[in-house]
Amino acid sequence: MKEAAVRCTGLTKSYMGIPAVNNVDLSVEQSDILALLGPSGCGKTTVLRLIAGLDIPETGTVEIGGNMVTDIKTQAGPEKRQVGMVFQEYALFPHMNVSKNIAYGLPRSGKQQSIVNEMLSLVNLEGMGERMPHQLSGGEQQRVALARALAPSPQVLLLDEPF
To answer: Are 51 and 42 contacting, i.e. CB atoms less than 8 angstroms apart?
Structure first.
């Protein structure tokens, strides 16, 4: 059996007293793909936000790569989780060009530009690094968001409404 890439146990989260997620358990092994399906408002995005550390659960635990990142004593910030996330609306910075959007989460080093170039190639956007987000089609913007999420080599990739 492979090690779980993500394991959530008993996750609960409410907004203004209205339950969004109630006692969710899930486990995803490394290299596996899991799709959360359900109607609007059923808590899919909330589960992703809890895994990414963007929201704090009221109860429950989250493990990533065998490391506890959320429990009663621990709440590791999003930057400590090695999770990449592509948001439903892509969340590109409108004042930054494509290359700077992709480089945003990378440590400043001599490798930064080579990683950006590799990501541009990966998402088939070579030569578009200087364009601004508003100059791209919706599909191109989505690929920039995917490249930005993949650039730091996360252990886990979360996609909110990727299609």
So the answer is: no
